[in-house]
Amino acid sequence: MPALDDSILAVQGLYKAYTGRGEELLALRDINLEVYPGEFISCVGPSGCGKSTLLNILGGLLDRTAGAVWFKGQEHNEPRREIGMMFQTPVLFDWRTILDNVLLPVEILGLSKAQYCVRALELLDLVGLKGFEKAYPRELSGGMQQRAALSRVLVYDPEVLLLDEPFGALDEFTREAMNLELLRIWDSTHKTVVFVTHNINEAVFLADRVVVMTPRPGEIAQVCKIDLPRPRTRDVMRLPGYAEKVFEVREVLGVAH
Asked: Do 188 and 220 touch, CB atoms closer than 8 A?
């Protein structure tokens, strides 16, 4: 990696293969990508193309087979506090209140619970969960649980957010609301985001760039720059430029209609 490179995350010549029953399954092939501070990247592609595998490697949760991964120019191969991850399901513990679920990373990292409790309450207010601090996950809707999960990944203030289809299980209206909520938080915090999704419209609406991947073994077919105005509201979806970018991504994916 060049010394003057200003990316926050970068991969070069990345391969990932799984072995089992004497066979090798190549999940990722020759991935090269740089992500810059404050950038919002969406990653879209067909099921099984390796999007989640790539995200887990970026998060230091999964070993690579070949290639290199850097965080701020330093070799990166294990979880670190500066990188937070949010998954497809909220993964909230039923026996912990919403506030205690949000504070879980603080406990794991050995940070001051009293100090971060203030921030946790601020985040719950920010995502519209004020008044539900003492509730339990079973008392919240799916969308509310995902808001709590988003608060949990933000509470210890990581520089990078890796989000693996966090709203995929939600209904269309709740999903749209969560996308707007995420953009509002991103606009105010300027964090770096890598967001995995199957939804082309969602990928375009959120991102500065959309990384389009091929079927397995996953390769980067194209990186599409999304030059739509920010801050983005629902009205952006009415713009001709939005439709053009959606069709551009669809064409790269080979989706006819």
From this structure: no
